[in-house]
Design a protein that fits this description.
The protein is α+β, with helices and mostly antiparallel strands. The chain has three domains: about 10-95, Ubiquitin-like (UB roll) (Roll); about 110-195, Fumarate Reductase Iron-sulfur Protein, Chain B, domain 2; about 200-239, no CATH class. The chain is about 35% helix and about 10% strand. The chain is built from ten helices and five strands. It has a five-stranded mixed β-sheet with strand order 2-1-5-3-4, with helices on one face. β3 and β4 form a beta hairpin. α5 packs antiparallel against α6, α5 (about 145-150) crosses α7 and α6 (about 155-160) packs across α7 (about 180-195). The longest helix is centred in the C-terminal third of the chain and has 16 residues, at about 180-195. The chain is flat, with a radius of gyration of 26 Å. The relative contact order is 0.10. It binds iron/sulfur cluster (2 copies) and FE2/S2 (inorganic) cluster.
Length: about 240
């Protein structure tokens, strides 16, 4: 390096750069120093918490890490997915304990009138009082309250579209003053939509029919009888 071009005034302390900036967070009433910008779940691990339940995909898909949090000086308790939310200084949080919501059991294919059956399976669904707490609690930004009403009025198609991003975190359930589990009502409506009301793609139906009639049994037997090398050769040939 050209020593003349080296300016000692802009010397950077390497250790200082590598050392992460720390923030203070509060977990279950106790304060911890954790690196700025890590996720809530990493902060729990970093501070030595034993997180056995509430961890799944770590990518915002499985909904296992439902968490309540509050930011500095703000009295409002909010909700988030711990694996997808960064900590900030003064944040206080704790993961949601499993909530014992009632889950109706049903054989979807055997239901004769799924829109009416909703009222037998989830009789509390029409008792929604429009408080909107479920929508406010949803970390996925779904209009949960509207979805419950749409399900009650039999618009299962809209429900299935609205809840496409639902990760079943369950945060909308403990807040409901009418004891509705909105996510379970929506899941039922979406399943019913798929099983009973959606037009099945013609080509897919044809292919399922062919499989049922055994058109591909011979081919399957051939594949299942192959050893690893034969499988690799066949795959390579397809590519
Ligand atoms: S609808 Fe309920 S269960 Fe689904 S993501 Fe929103 S809060 Fe979670
Ligand atoms: S929390 Fe319950 S009562 Fe309130 S809007 Fe949602 S479903 Fe209705
Ligand atoms: S761990 Fe799966 S959504 Fe957070």
């Amino acid at each position: 390096m050209d020593q003349k071009a080296f300016d000692s005034n802009v010397l950077i302390d390497q250790e200082e750069v590598l050392r992460p900036k720390m923030v203070t967070v509060e977990i279950a009433g106790k304060k911890y120093e954790v690196p700025e910008g890590i996720t809530v779940i990493k902060a729990l691990w970093y501070s030595g918490q034993e997180v056995i339940h509430g961890v799944g995909c770590l990518g915002g898909y499985c909904g296992a890490c439902a968490t309540y949090y509050r930011t500095k000086d703000d009295p409002k308790v909010r909700t988030c997915l711990a694996c997808s939310t960064a900590v900030e200084d003064g944040m206080s949080f704790s993961m949601m304990a499993p909530f014992p919501a009632r889950k109706a059991t049903y054989q979807m294919a055997e239901l004769k009138d799924p829109k009416q059956d909703l009222f037998n399976l989830y009789p509390e669904a029409p008792m929604c009082r429009n408080c909107n707490a479920c929508t406010e609690a949803c970390p996925q930004g779904i209009d949960v309250r509207d979805g419950v009403w749409k399900a009650v009025f039999g618009d299962f198609k809209s429900v299935s579209e609205m809840f496409m991003d639902c990760v079943m975190c369950g945060l909308c359930t403990p807040v409901c003053i009418a004891d509705i589990a909105p996510n379970l009502v929506a899941l039922y409506a979406s399943r019913a939509q798929g099983a009973h009301f959606m037009e099945k793609p013609k080509r897919l139906q044809e292919r399922i029919g062919e499989i049922e009639q055994g058109h591909y049994t011979k081919e399957w037997d051939r594949i299942l009888g192959m050893n690893d090398q034969e499988l690799k050769d066949v795959c390579a040939a397809i590519k």
